[in-house]
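Step 1: inspect the first sequence and its tokens.
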Amino acid sequence: MSDAAFNVPGKIAPAGHLGERLGWKGSGEIALSVNNLAVTQRFYEAVIGLPLMTRMPNCAFFKIADGYAGHTQVLALFDRSGSPEYRGPDRATSSVDHIAFEIRLEGFAAEKHGLEQLGLAVETTEHAWVHWRSLNGTDPEGNRVELVCYDDGV
């Protein structure tokens, strides 16, 4: 594969080049390294409500959406705590700012109430430029998680 396909220092592919050539259809996988797989798995199952696809000794895969042409969109959690070089998630050095999941506008208030009933700190945000309303919090590993919906009224 040519180095023009990805951003390489000093060589940045033209905007839209790779997407046009490959016909991107959506996100395939979001993968996070975690320190405590069991606790983080419970959060994404019980709090966020993602269905668990499979659990292996050092990883868990959750279904986000059906995806395209048989490839399910997934969230993957990888327990890297046993790797000698792994130092754990660090917000100061991570390139991940947050992950967002779409929810229905009709469920927005109920989701907010349910998260608060679990004792979670929840902030709300409105993004007028795209008509989005969002709920923001963190998972047990400190990753910022956003639940977002489209709202014509924003």
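Step 2: inspect the second sequence and its tokens, then contrast the two.
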Amino acid sequence: MSYDPLEEVPVQTDIAVLSDLWNGLPDAEHIVRRAVAAAAAHPEVKPPADAELSVALADDAEVQKLNRDYRGKDKPTNVLSFPATHGPMLGDVIIAYETLVKEAAEEEIAAGDHLTHLTVHGLLHLLGHDHETEAEAVTMERLETEVLASLGVKDPHATGRTMPDGPHA
């Protein structure tokens, strides 16, 4: 593989592949690292200098369990973010493979592009961004769009798509 400056991410990113389903997207870890690096490079996204991030590439069953246990929603979702309470650790981002692939197919986008979006979305949540109000949603969507554009990924909000975890969820 050739040198990629976006792999030099200021956020130490640990990736755990928790499901063999991710073999269907063999570049997933590279995609996640590039997404984190691009988000961290955005001038309005300011992770701490010693920031650490954990990303779990899971399946729908695991994400449904976490969604039920921690959010009271007994269904899978595409991405969950759990902020850390202290230290340089930002928190955990967990992404569900089957939901990601299903949504990508429905929206006629590449699964890798959707993984990029979900990674950026989850990281922005861990850095304090949200979309509970219209103003927050506009800001978060703009940041996502700018980060994704830096990676050559089309604006996911241009066609009226909602936030990965639902409008104002």
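Step 3: confirm your contrast with the notes below.
Residues 57 and 123 are 14 Å apart (CA to CA). The longest strand covers residues 89-96.
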